[in-house]
Amino acid sequence: MGLVVQKYGGSSVADAEGIKRVAKRIVDAKRNGNQVVVVVSAMGDTTDELIDLAEQVSPIPAGREFDMLLTAGERISMALLAMAIKNLGHEAQSFTGSQAGVITDSVHNKARIIDVTPGRIRTSIDEGNIAIVAGFQGVSQEGKNITTLGRGGSDTTAVALAAALDAEVCEIYTDVDGVFTADPRVVKKAKKIDWISFEDMLELAASGSKVLLHRCVEYARRYDIPIHVRSSFSGLRGTWVSNEPQGDQKVEHAIISGVAHDVSEAKVTVVGVPDKPGEAAAIFRAIANAEVNIDMVVQNVSAASTGLTDISFTLPKSEGRKAIDALERAKGTIGFESLRYDDQIAKISLVGAGMKTNPGVTAGFFEALSDAGVNIELISTSEIRISVVTRADDVNEAVRAVHTAFGLDSDSDEAVVYGGTGR
Ligand code: ADP
Ligand code: ASP
Ligand code: MG
Fold first, then answer.
1. Atom 9 of ligand 2 has which residue's CA nearest to it?
2. Whether the predicted model's global pTM rises above the 0.90 cut
3. What is the CA radius of gyration of the chain?
4. For 226-259, how does the pLDDT look when each residue is reduced to its tens digit (9 = 90+)?
5. How far apart are CA 348 and CA 361, in angstroms?
6. 82 CB less than 6 Å from ligand 2?
7. Of 120, 173, 258, 333, which one's alpha carbon is 20 to 30 angstroms from that of 160?
8. Which residue among 43, 71, 151, 161 is best mutated to probe the pocket of ligand 2, counting the most ligand atoms within 8 A of its Cβ?
9. The CATH number of 3-245 is which of 2.60.120.20, 3.40.50.300, 3.40.1160.10, 3.30.70.1150?
């Protein structure tokens, strides 16, 4: 008998109908002879609604209480899903992240899983139950506080449980038919990818393709857990993410895997920084001490007459306030002139392992953007990715232009989006 872990995202369980539909799919997997562990997200946009609510009572909510609040979303859906399954005549038990043995560090709102001890889950499925686990949450090893894993963290819960339970596969059910060459909400001509390597999927996820979370792919690669991303609304085969393609998983020998975009970042510019050793170190130490992660960094050439330069970097919008506060506090010791904050930016990235050996990809990317009249503000590259920052208003047009320029447009089907609000 095989063991499968299935994860259902918020759009798949958005309402009572969705929960009943998902319950049927889960029961089918059980009837096919599998042991089934299910990870479930909060219904629809519940997490966003809880965040809005918290911000109305406190502009910077305390991390511990914020996590306590957000985990309530997943607890609602896990209990309802277990009830719906029982209603179909099958045994199901729901568990919080803490009960499922998801142990994390103590960093509230973006905790990392450090251990998974799924004893209760194992017992439950060995007794014949379907185990339903609340995604996105755990309990801190020190302090035993309830933590959350960061937005989209249910994906990571699913892969971590799959690894701890030695599952055959981790199925991620969502509102599109798999991983596409671009977000199907933006590019109707995006193509479904049959198989993609962990390496390329990691870069797509890190660049904003939220169909899979970066940490989840990292975890799957470390423990070699194949992921099958597919729709909970259709019976179609989705996208396999793994080290090597298996069986009849088709490999496209494309240079480019896809185009990703991200509108969740902001840009901070530190204006008038003295051009001398130690300044960048002081700025980024202040940011790091505030536990803020940064993405791209660019330092401009200093004007010879003033000996001052500007340093820009990008970071998640949700961390913007913390970063600005930390820099303001350190202003006296660092000695810059002022700070600029811009949250109307977008990042567009082109990803593909073929980039390493194909000259001209960078040139083609910039030409496509220039033909679409899109101005580039920052550039960063890795071996298999090029990213630029543009104005947020230009993002959709830029993604489509790049997708077309690299020959990624599908000439047959239109990509289907079954649900979700895209929030
Ligand atoms: P869930 O609620 O199931 O976790 P998410 O909203 O987190 O769903 O992720 C699914 C969404 O990811 C899709 O609806 C789609 O808009 C978006 N997306 C972004 N990039 C891609 C891509 N390359 N392929 C497929 N979906 C993508
Ligand atoms: N409910 C959480 C979120 O919206 C976690 C998840 O869905 O993965 O971010
Ligand atoms: Mg998600």
1. 151
2. yes
3. 22
4. 999 999 999 999 999 999 988 888 787 778 999 9
5. 14
6. no
7. 258
8. 151
9. 3.40.1160.10
